[in-house]
Structure formats: structure tokens, C-alpha cells
Design brief:
The protein is built from four helices and five strands. By secondary structure, the chain is of the alpha+beta class. The chain has a five-stranded antiparallel sheet. A hairpin with a 5-residue loop joins β3 and β4. The two termini are 14 Å apart.
């Protein structure tokens, strides 16, 4: 007999508007070098940061972690998360050695059902990166599915 319960749907919807503490993140040259090297690419000109940094830079800079994001959505396990999308928007090049102000929040959270009736919670996180002058430099929108083993 399965005794697992779905997280309360109202709790999931109430996540909309949750803000992370925020903070700063600076990509050092060595970090950019290693990230670029692992993609098999050459360093970009003019100290530009490789886009792959947007996988971790916004999350760490906003003062959160993957573990906290899993916990907020009440993930059943590390393997219960499905990725819907990572939408990266660049408004100006990201540069090495520049401290970016990072803010983050949950912009969408709701319960959905697949065609087979299986439930999942769809949660969307938005992270904004601003340069020292306060200009929006990049934005990342991460949408995950918190798959549920009960329906």
C-alpha cells in the first residue's frame, strides 16, 4: 500500500513570489577558463564569460542552492525532478572579474497532470543579474517538474 501523499496544492501555489536572499557573484578568470575548457570551446574575446556559467552563477549568486530549490518544491528525491527548460537571456556580455548583483524568485508554481493522470508540480524560477551600474545583464528562467509518485 502506497502511503505517500501529494504536497498540498495550495502550498505549491503559495511559492509564487518567494524571493531568495540575493547577493553577488563574480566569475574569476580561472573559473571561466575551466568552464570554457570543459565545453571544448576557446575562451571568448574581451574577458567574456562562457554562457555555461548560467547553470550555477545565478543560483549561487542569489543565495540559494539546488538542494533548497528541491526542498521548496518538496521533491520526493533527487531523481524526481524533470527539466522543462532553461531560458537564458543576455542583454549585454557577462565579463570576468565583474561582481554581478543577483536576485531570484519563484514566478510560477502550479499542479498539473499528464495524459496518464500522473501529477507533477511545475515550478519556475527567475534569476536576474545586474552589473555594478545596476544594468540588467542577463536573466535566466529555470522551469522544473517535480514529479510525484502518487496521483
Amino acid at each position: 500500500m502506497n502511503t505517500k501523499q501529494l504536497p498540498d496544492e495550495a502550498e505549491i501555489r503559495a511559492l509564487v513570489g518567494h524571493e531568495f536572499p540575493g547577493g553577488h557573484y563574480t566569475v574569476e578568470h580561472w573559473e571561466n577558463f575551466l568552464l570554457t575548457e570543459c565545453t571544448g570551446a576557446d575562451l571568448l574575446p574581451d574577458r567574456m564569460v562562457h554562457p555555461v556559467a548560467l547553470f550555477h552563477m545565478p543560483i549561487l549568486g542569489a543565495g540559494t542552492s539546488i538542494a533548497e530549490m528541491f526542498a521548496l518544491g518538496q521533491a520526493e528525491s533527487d531523481f524526481s525532478i524533470g527539466i522543462e527548460s532553461y531560458d537564458w537571456r543576455f542583454f549585454r556580455p557577462l565579463k570576468e572579474e565583474m561582481p554581478y548583483r543577483v536576485t531570484g524568485r519563484i514566478t510560477e508554481a502550479d499542479r498539473r497532470h499528464r495524459a496518464n493522470g500522473a501529477a507533477y508540480d511545475r515550478i519556475q524560477f527567475q534569476f536576474d543579474l545586474a552589473d555594478p551600474d545596476g544594468q540588467l545583464s542577463a536573466q535566466t528562467i529555470v522551469t522544473w517538474h517535480y514529479n510525484r509518485s502518487v496521483s
